[in-house]
Amino acid sequence: MKISGSIVALVTPMHDDGSVDWEALAKLVSFHVANKTDAIVTVGTTGESATLDFDEHAEVIRFVVREAAGRIPVIAGTGANSTKEALMLTRSAAEAGADAALLVTPYYNKPTQEGLYQHYKLLADSVDIPQILYNVPGRTAVDMQNETVARLADHPRIAGIKDATGDVARGAELVRMLGDAMAVYSGDDGSCEQLMLAGGQGNISVTANVAPAKMAELCRLAMAGERAQAEALQASLQPLHSILFVESNPIPVKWALHEMGMIEAGIRLPLTPLSEALRPKLRETLVAQGLLSE
């Protein structure tokens, strides 16, 4: 299954005590189907993968796959800084019926480029599911170079890469290097239209959590090469992109969804709810975007 377009990096809704809110999660899946989101990433960074234990992680993936029921592709976040753990999570996602796995570069232990290559090759050799690499050096302290990505591009199970560097020129060069061998997705809402205009196949988006229809339209325009319209829509969305990163993701986006009445305010330590001083500006931005009534 080819996955392209607006791909939401879905939050994991939680009750105030931090337990997963399964009812709200089901409603979010249907919300994205109704608003033309093209695919869902579950249990990625925005889904608080770092604070879900293994059993919870696997159960959220199974639940989202069941709720999607083939209406929308589901990409499971299965990356880890232990290759063994990433292998277990990826196998679990494949068994659950996920359409693809998203694998962040191993964080904290700072592998070499050869270590990254061997990590991803082993995962792709071992699990029969399409796999999307994920490079986000601002989070991981590890930067997978374009040359390393190109080394992996011929593997039949490696289907794409989420480039969350925010460096459009670098992403565009990756598009040119890979050709049809691998899809390149933006992982940076603020510059996503530029990478798609340069040949990227979509955007894995935080903003799509709260503005799915607008993000779906932005991706459609940019992938169709409608530069003027895409840039105009992106300009109108920039205040929303900015406010959703005013504190560490997913703090602002979860509070935004809470303001919109879609989820409770639950979030797991060490993350905390959005600072009170920032809440009026976030609410003001949601109202200006037509996402919340005054």
Tell me the CATH topology.
Answer: TIM Barrel
Shape: globular
Helix amount, in percent? 40-55%
Name the CATH superfamily assignment: Aldolase class I
Give, in order, the helices and strands. EHEHEHEHEHHEHEHEHHHH
Overview of the structural elements:
By secondary structure, this protein is α/β, with parallel strands linked by helices. It has a single domain (5-224), classed as TIM Barrel (Alpha-Beta Barrel), CATH 3.20.20. Helices cover 45% and strands 13% of the residues. The chain has twelve helices and eight strands. β6 (158-163), α7 and β7 (183-186) form a beta-alpha-beta unit. α1 (22-34) packs across α2.
